Amino acid sequence: MFAQWNRRMWIFPLDLIFMGISYFLAHWIRFESFIFLASPERFFISLAI
Fold it and tell me: How is the chain split into domains, by residue range?
C-alpha cells in the first residue's frame, strides 16, 4: 500500500507539470495566431515559407 501511495505521489506532480505545459502551449499558440491576425503581412510571409 505504501509503494502504491509513493508511486501516486510521484505521478501527481508530473501530471501537474504536463497539464501546465499543455495549458501554456495552448495559450501561446492562441497568442501567436492572434499576432498573425493582427499583422497580415507576417501571416502571408509564414504562408510563403
Answer: 10-48
pLDDT of residue 46: 64
What does the H/E/C string look like for 7-36?
HHHHHHHHHHHHHHHHHHHHHHHHHHHHHH
pLDDT tens for 4-47 read 666 666 666 777 788 888 788 777 767 666 665 656 666 666 66
Question: Hey, what amino acid is at 6?
Answer: N
35 residue type, one letter: I
Residue 42 per-residue DSSP state? H
Helix axes 2-38, 40-48, angle to 10 degrees: 110
